[in-house]
Write a structure and sequence with these properties.
globular, mainly alpha
Length: 344
């Protein structure tokens, strides 16, 4: 498999897309509404899940044991996640309308800390006296995807186990793909539960698309022009027909993402100074919320405040990478890859 790719750029691009989408929505400022015309948080999240399926599958087959696999996943996600949750509880005590003693004696403070540390953010998304006049009171509404991501990490070894036992990878992956779409349709359209639709296995179709593309990488690259053309046509037909559901959308979208990752060579060195994507993702939401709480987008020039949000978030992202994330990453370069079951 070709090791030269621009996944670092694509992940940063998707994270920046989510930041701009949330900046448009959470700022509630008409001057920043234009950001919603070229940013879409949901599409970016789908891109993350495709890339995750591809790269985590690659990591799994190149890891010598299941224990090592889970340690690698935990070291990538948990340290920075724990820091942002604990950091938020401590720092936001100074911004809360509740006084210091009331803030730390309020049970909701500890509910927030407990539920968020176990990834159940929806159980207690808010802290006492914070963001009560904002569009949302949630301290960090972006963290919900990490619960889904953790679920994917747990499911992936089971998927490969089923592939190994049945020797029918295409049956396993296609079945999961359609079951995911069925779950999404039932929750979103039939039961009118969009929040439940977003939970596992709602986005599993994108994750298994990434796995499929990894297992069939050589085939995809061999016929990349044809696959890319059909994928673009499928996405265009989806958007212009205003379909609410399209069974081929995750597959087409995933093909475009992975083909782009290996065919934009001028972006291959994008992450040479560090991977700031995760920090950008987990810190942008609370920064925007603080600016909105004090009406900074209205009191001052909205564009300058938007730039300030981006720069502050980048500052925290860089700190997160160098002080936390990079310290916990293991390279595992000496492991012998497992044999990869192929589909095609």
């Amino acid at each position: 498999m070709n090791t030269k790719n621009c996944f670092d750029f694509l992940r940063f691009f998707f994270a920046a897309n989510i930041l701009l989408a949330h900046l448009s929505e959470l700022s509630q400022n008409s001057n920043l509404a234009f950001l919603s015309h070229f940013s879409n948080a949901i599409i970016a999240i789908k891109g993350f899940f495709v890339i995750s399926g591809f790269l985590v599958a690659k990591s799994f087959v190149n890891t010598s044991s299941l224990k090592e696999y889970f340690i690698k996943r935990a070291k990538r996600i948990l340290p920075a996640y724990v820091v942002v949750v604990v950091f938020s509880v401590l720092i936001f005590s100074f911004f809360s309308s509740a006084d210091f003693l009331d803030y730390f004696s309020d049970s909701n403070t500890y509910k927030y800390l407990g539920w968020n540390l176990v990834f159940l953010n929806f159980m207690q998304p808010c802290l006492p006296g914070l963001f009560e006049g904002n569009l949302l009171c949630a301290v960090n509404g972006a963290l919900w995807t990490l619960k889904v991501e953790e679920g994917f990490y747990i499911v992936l070894p089971l998927i490969f186990y089923a592939i190994k036992k049945t020797k029918r990878p295409i049956l396993i992956l296609v079945s999961l793909y359609f079951l995911s779409l069925l779950y999404w349709f039932m929750m979103d359209s039939y039961f009118n539960k969009p929040l439940l639709a977003k939970q596992l296995p709602g986005y599993l179709s994108y994750f298994v698309t990434g796995i499929f593309l990894f297992l069939n990488f050589e085939f995809i690259m061999k016929f990349k022009k044809t696959i890319l053309m059909f994928s673009v046509l499928i996405l265009l037909s989806y958007y212009f027909s205003n379909l609410q559901t399209d069974v081929f959308y995750p597959a087409a979208f995933g093909c475009i993402v992975i083909i782009m990752a290996y065919n934009l060579p001028f972006l291959n060195n994008f992450g040479k100074y560090g991977d700031f994507t995760y920090g950008l993702y987990i810190y942008h939401f609370p920064v925007i919320q603080i600016f909105r709480q004090y009406d900074l987008f209205e009191k001052y020039n909205a564009y300058l405040m938007a730039v300030a949000v981006i720069l502050i978030t980048l500052f925290f992202a860089v700190l997160s990478w160098f002080l936390i994330e990079r310290r916990f990453l293991d390279r595992f370069k000496t492991n012998k890859p497992k044999p990869i079951p192929t589909v095609c």
